[in-house]
Design brief:
The complex is a heterodimer of chains A (144) and B (132). Chain A has 144 residues and is an all-alpha fold. Chain A has four helices and no strands. Classes of the chains: A mainly alpha (144), B mainly alpha (132). The complex binds protoporphyrin IX containing FE.
């Protein structure tokens, strides 16, 4: 498994544990309303979507033989903005809801988080799109 | 990747982008309250991402990678094609219903359930030991 894929998948695994751990707090009635969106998005974006991103990066048909995963730098950037955006949201949204600190500041954090996560989706789609394709016709080269 | 998978996965990528765009829009509004009407998109957010992105992506990849039949073929694709068509009609109907408040969600969900059934019928025999 390539290094970048391992980062995606292991981070996704951490979110799985984090989200289901948060589920205990919800069940215990601690900050239930404030934490509900974080619970769902840590699970769906952090675990499921990030796992899909990582495995797709690994398993989709190669971009080219030299660059099987397309623009790998873009995929690292996607990894960073996805996780920065999601973590920022997971912190800002509940704290804003329970009114810890300045609501306006948390509000602005949510805006930044939204932009970061949106950029992640855009970057992933840009890299994945050309790899979602039928089999390449084999071309004969140099009489081989 | 077979053509059906290319279609399903590309559609799912479009739903991913649309769903994240809507989610970001609602989140920005939640943060700064600039555009409360953003909440009107909430139903579309959930539908596009849960069904359009994750559900459809899994169907597309499943069609591609499940063990093939002897002779290296994927069997009659009709039920799988039907699943993708029904699923996307269903998502569109649920979207129209949540966005414009039209009473179409029952139809939308019925199309989605029929899509699911169709894919289950197609995929069931392909979930088998490799080479069997
Ligand atoms: C695969 C990805 C996603 C799925 C399946 C998904 C699904 C959902 C679901 C089921 C809810 C309702 C949960 C609840 O009641 O709290 C929800 C709420 C919401 N989602 Fe997402 N979501 C996804 C990604 C995103 C992203 C990337 C953003 C922002 C950039 C976002 C923004 C929101 C917002 C603002 C809400 C409303 C939270 C509230 O109740 O105040 N979502 N989403």
């Amino acid at each position: 498994m390539p290094t970048i894929v391992r980062w995606y998948v292991k981070t996704a695994l951490l979110y799985l544990a984090l989200a289901l751990g948060l589920g205990i707090l919800l069940a215990a009635g601690i900050w239930r309303a404030a934490l509900t969106p974080s619970y769902w998005h840590l699970f769906i974006v952090g675990w499921l979507t990030q796992l899909i991103f990582g495995i797709a990066l690994w398993m989709l048909p190669s971009f080219t033989r030299e660059r099987p995963r397309g623009n790998e730098l873009l995929s690292w950037a996607v990894y960073v903005v996805l996780n920065a955006g999601l973590l920022l949201r997971a912190i800002a949204e509940p704290l804003r809801a329970v009114q810890v600190g300045a609501a306006a500041l948390w509000g602005q954090a949510l805006v930044i988080s939204a932009i970061l996560q949106w950029l992640a989706a855009l970057g992933f789609v840009i890299n994945a799109w050309p790899r979602v394709r039928g089999p390449r016709r084999k071309t004969r080269q140099g009489g081989a | 990747m077979p053509r059906l998978s290319v279609w399903a996965v590309r559609l799912s990528l479009l739903y991913l982008l649309a769903g994240f765009t809507i989610g970001a829009f609602i989140l920005v509004n939640k943060g700064v309250g600039a555009y409360p009407a953003a909440w009107r998109w909430f139903g579309a957010h959930q539908e596009f991402l849960l069904i359009g992105w994750m559900g459809q992506f899994a169907i597309g990849i499943g069609y591609w990678v499940f063990p093939r039949y002897r002779g290296n073929h994927r069997g009659n694709p009709a039920a799988a094609v039907l699943a993708i068509v029904l699923l996307n009609i269903g998502i569109a109907l649920v979207f129209v219903s949540t966005f414009w408040g039209l009473p179409l969600s029952l139809w939308g969900r019925t199309f989605e359930a029929a899509a699911a059934l169709s894919f289950v019928i197609y995929a069931w025999p392909r979930v088998k030991p490799t080479g069997a």
